[in-house]
Amino acid sequence: MKKLAFAFFALCLSFSVLADEVRLKDSHPDRYTVVKGDTLWDISGTFLQNPWMWPEIWQVNPQIDNPHLIYPGDVIKLVYLDGRPRLTLERGSRNVKLSPKVRPIPLDEAIPAIPLDEINNFLSRSRVVTAAEMEAAPHVLTGAEQHLVVGAGDKLYARGDFSDGAEVYGVYRGGIRFIDPETNELLGLQALDIGTVKMRDENDDLGTFDVTRSVEEIRIADRLLPHEERAVESTFYPSRPNEDLEGVIMAVEGGLTQVGRMDVVALNRGEREGVEVGSVFAIYKDGGAIRDRVKGDVVKLPDEKAGLMMVFRTFDKMSLALVLEASRPLAVNDKARHP
Question: pTM for the complete prediction?
């Protein structure tokens, strides 16, 4: 998948948040020069105690081409307008040889909002489907010469309904069943990316395919889903979710129970609850309960904030998020709340 830069800022965001909610770090610099390898989240954390508030103080310079994109060599300055902090952009010098032709700057030279290499696979090929969709999808029948496993460059046969007219299919294998820990609702089924096939011939419910890509051996009973032509948003807006919206970490990539910084986690809230790409959640650990030795009753201790995560992909009933900060070990079933 072609790398896309995520623009982190937008003038169209409302400045409705009170100025005292935007808290500068005591050690913040007055200016910062962007270097290769930076992310917008890291830079925002250099200036702000609450990095997701960056759009509230971003001052767009209309004289700069693509002021929402930041490149290595650019200088970010902290200024005050009407007593409020604002961050401005000064383009770094770029020595180019001028000639009469268009010289576009590739988007992938701009720094990303978050480390794309941590989530690249989830952006490009990860899917969450319903159990019914997986069950109804065509299945791998056999490989050429009745081989049980197939790889890139091989031929395979699949059986099912190909009336959708697709020529290219992704090959998937059922993974985690995402169950809401609060309601026991089945929120979706993880479809593990195995490879890609292209149809060579179709005869009733039997299709002949060439395997064009495989990340592991394709097996009998793996499922075929039409190739997704899904463009990743090139504009990435960090935002705070609705104050009443709370969720729970259902799972962490790899089937583990412990969660750390830069881990991808599954959240039991999705588009139907209003979660959007860029939504930032604070992660809280249950404070537990303790018996009061004086009064003899049990007291529930307050939950403790332990990290931050940002949603980078949403589905109807759930979302995927990247843990950006973790002040203590996190775990499945930790809570997600308004930051």
Answer: 0.75
